[in-house]
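I have been asked to look over a protein record a colleague put together. Thanks in advance; the entry in question is below.
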Amino acid sequence: MAAVGTSLYLKKGELVGSWRFENLDYPEPRFSLERPPQTPYPPSRLT
C-alpha cells in the first residue's frame, strides 16, 4: 500500500486522497509538508 499511496501522491497530488494510503504505513504523514492540517510547527511553506 505504501507504493500505491506514494504513486497517487506524486502523480495525482491529491494530499487529501493519498494521505490515507501513506498514513497506513508511514507513521509520519508526508502530506503535512505540503498541506499541514494539524501541524505543531507554523505552516510557513504554505504562505
Remarks:
- Residues 19 and 44 are 20 Å apart (CA to CA).
- Helices lie at 2-11, 15-25, 31-34.
- The chain has a mean pLDDT of 51.
- The chain has three helices and no strands.
